[in-house]
L-rhamnose isomerase
Amino acid sequence: MSHSLLDNLRIELPSWAFGNSGTRFKVFGTPGTPRTVEEKIADAATVHRFTGLAPTVALHIPWDRVDDYAALGTYAADHGVRLGTINSNTFQDDDYKFGSLTHTDKAVRQKAIDHHLECIEIMGATGSRDLKIWLADGTNYPGQGDIRGRQDRLAESLAAIYQHIGEGQRLVLEYKFFEPAMYMTDVPDWGTSYAQVSALGERAAVCLDTGHHAPGTNIEFIVAQLLRLGKLGSFDFNSRFYADDDLIVGAADPFQLFRIMFEVIRGGGLDESSDVALMLDQCHNVEAKIPGQIRSVLNVQEMTARALAVDTDALAVAQEAGDVLGANDIFMNAFYTDIRPALAQWRTERGLPADPMAAFAASGYQDTVNAERVGGTQSSWGA
Ligand code: PSV
Ligand code: MN
């Protein structure tokens, strides 16, 4: 693979992907699951060591709360990675039953704002650039809440948080069209997120989680539009068959991932100067977590390499000539190109294992942590 943009690909791993997760029916424990944030970071660093693709780890607060964040940063650096995006969490406290930043009660809103200020303080200690906000706020029944009033309170709360976003920091606002609210979500779509972050200012942008759209949504169109507007802050990559399944990115629809990465590249999202953060937001409910993350970053790399293989000059000629089938052929040729041998060579040239999945399996890392991590409480969505 000779394309230089491939070397710019960096994928941030979510700390919570290394903990146990599940559905509302069952969370399965797995041997070797981290008990602490340090153990999650050690696992994330292992993914990076085998792939060279994942130099940062996102934290979720309070799941990853520690006393000394600077020391945690040093721990990460000692393992060859850095701490990345700080995710806030206003969806697991009784006070937030009827909303957090949108709540009608000023005291609850203030509590949610204060939580974000704590996250910004953590960012100062970890050197993290991004504060990522996803809200579970919404309503279940028509008439339950004042849609317009909730938007106004959201804008006010976000402005109070944004005031504290320092130079070199950003606020990214994630959208999701349903769940846990089932009738109306307060930030349901990219348009609402865009409207809210645009009102805040330059240091606020949209986070696009690929699992957060209605079936059939043309996600690459949203990618193209947000990049065009300079407001695509970050991705939460995962894949879905039905709802917000949080499966391995590229597992359900590799072609969609290819189309998304094509638009990322087209919009400058992979340029050296780009500040688009490519993150994973996944749960490994039944598969092994570390190889699950290795598979995920490899899938992103593979579809990026294929997207880079599109002959864009020939494509432009075909598009301008109105050559519908010719243009589609050029696009599909790149998608159907088996880029795996070239990527194996790319890795070998960089001192990485040609086959990271096989190398991890042979490394004995999993057996070691299975033996070492006995006792304590395995990390999960609550801890
Ligand atoms: C919500 O479904 C979400 O995508 C948000 O990013 C949360 O912070 C995350 O999942 C928790 O896994
Ligand atoms: Mn997400």
In short: The chain has a mean pLDDT of 97. The longest helix spans residues 106-126.
